[in-house]
Amino acid sequence: MKDIKFEEVVNTKKQINELYTLLKNRAYGISHKELPSFEEHENFVRNNPYKHWFMVIKNTKAIGAIYLNYDNSIGINIVSMSEKIMSECINFAINNFSPEAEKKSKISKDMFINVHARNYEMIEVLKKMDMKPIQLSYRLPPKDQNEN
User: Cβ distance 79 to 88 under 8 Å?
Assistant: First the structure.
């Protein structure tokens, strides 16, 4: 798609604001239950924890973000999911980056995508693209919830 571009996150005020808007509009979150404050978000962006991080831009409008972690996982968050946009994001990652070297039980030899368990729309798009699931992860309750 010629109208899809990938803009590297370099911590400009505009990007921080756009990323916060995307975060507020995200339907599924894996890393947080509650929306962080803008200040927390700004600090997170300025201390970029990702190996690579890009905003997904369609016709000059931010429609999502993609990041690559040091464990070869890829996070993709798109406001309006489609097979074409997902394909562009995956192809961008594959064509521009190589996986980190495999470390048994620590780093997969392949890049992989983390998906929220209830993000059925993204799961269906990935299935249509012939992607295969490799694991399910479950969050354990905090220790204080287990005590009587």
Answer: no
pTM of the complete model:
0.86
Q: Does domain 4-97+108-134 have CATH number 3.40.50.300?
A: no
Q: Any idea which residue has 């220790």 for tokens?
A: 143
CB 66 within 8 A of CB 6: yes
φ, ψ of residue 145 to 5 degrees: the values are -80, -20
Closest Cα partner for 66 from 11, 6, 125, 109? 6
Contacts of 88 (CB under 8 A, 6+ apart): 1, 4, 56
Rounded Cα gap, residues 93 and 133, in angstroms = 18
pLDDT digits (tens, 9 = 90+) for 26-37: 876 666 678 899
Q: Round to whole Å and give the CA distance between 148 and 141.
A: 14
